[in-house]
Design brief:
Alpha-lytic protease prodomain-like, disordered C terminus, elongated, mainly alpha, 2 domains, 8 helices, three-stranded mixed beta sheet
């Protein structure tokens, strides 16, 4: 039930390389379209794609490191390095958003707005199509591989697509009425909001994972009921669940009849482990402690599960 790290890394690298290629093309198109099409919003969108390009590089490095097998110095593997790479993506988004918003606000204040051309409109349309396709391609792979860095990068692609929608709306408005040229820097402000929101959401999730924040009550309850439903388990306690690299790592205690042999107790623990790996999505590792029930009130039928 544990994901094949090597195969996942290969797929992740392929998906990310496609993103790098698409972003490289779009960066050139957007800068050219922004300069020759006289659109500040499209130039800002190009800067967003530059940040997307560099976060693709970060994602590529993160995937390569996190797929390394556990060793003596890192007995739990390198999955947390994928989380750190994901956090870098979030920080890049926030910095990009602030820079774009300041530039747009300055243009509005100085009234240094331009009149975008049809070229800017065409480039924004092409960007929307390519970035939305790239988002769908990346998010499918991220969910299938249970990779937090790929899913974060997919959200970056989606924010880039949404920012191009804002550019499209702003440029289209100026073409409808030339007096509305302020819509172009206003579109830039809207772009920065989308980017900022995506960045904070990514950072929030990374902080929760790096601080070992417990998952939702639903996950904890399902963990307990899954273990408690296994024949031979009298009680379940000491449940601890954390995330690492987008995967759940669990530790729990099960109470079994104190009269059982070690082999019988281990067999029950294995059944609990199988239940958790199969029933709870994204579970990567389960540690089960077997405690004897010494109350003398055990169900005799549990002695031979």
């Amino acid at each position: 039930m544990v994901r094949d790290s090597e195969a996942a890394a290969r797929t992740g690298r392929r998906v990310t390389l496609v993103g790098i290629l698409v972003n490289a093309v779009l960066i050139g198109l957007k800068f050219a379209g922004g300069v020759f099409g006289q659109s500040q919003a499209l130039i800002a969108d190009a800067v967003h794609s530059v940040s997307d390009f560099f976060t693709d590089i970060v994602a590529l490095v993160g995937l390569a490191i996190s797929s390394k097998a556990p060793d003596e110095e890192h007995p739990f593997g390198y999955a947390r390095l994928e989380t750190l790479a994901t956090a870098v993506i979030g920080l890049a988004l926030i910095v990009t958003a602030v820079g774009l918003a300041l530039d747009a606000a300055d243009s509005i204040y100085e009234q240094a707005v331009k009149h975008p051309t049809w070229l800017a409109l065409a480039v924004a349309s092409v960007s929307i199509l390519f970035k939305e396709a790239l988002y769908r391609y990346t998010i499918r792979a991220g969910r299938r591989l249970k990779s937090s860095v790929l899913q974060a990068n997919a959200r970056h692609h989606r924010s880039d697509a949404l920012s191009s929608v804002a550019v499209l709306a702003g440029v289209a408005g100026t073409k409808i009425n030339p007096k509305w040229q302020v819509l172009d820097p206003l579109a830039t402000l809207l772009v920065s909001f989308f980017i900022l929101k995506a960045g904070f959401e990514i950072i929030r999730d990374c902080v929760r994972e790096l601080t070992d924040t417990a998952p939702s009550r639903e996950v904890l309850d399902k963990t307990k009921s899954c273990a408690q439903d296994v024949p031979g388990v009298i009680n379940v306690h000491g449940i601890k669940v954390r995330m690492s690299g987008g995967q759940y790592q669990m530790e729990l205690h099960i109470v079994v009849d104190g009269g059982l042999t070690v082999t019988q107790g281990n067999r029950i623990a294995k059944q609990v482990e199988t239940c958790l790996l199969e029933d709870i999505i994204n579970t990567d590792q389960v540690i089960i402690h077997v405690d004897p029930d010494e109350s003398g009130q055990s169900d005799p039928s549990s002695q031979k599960p």
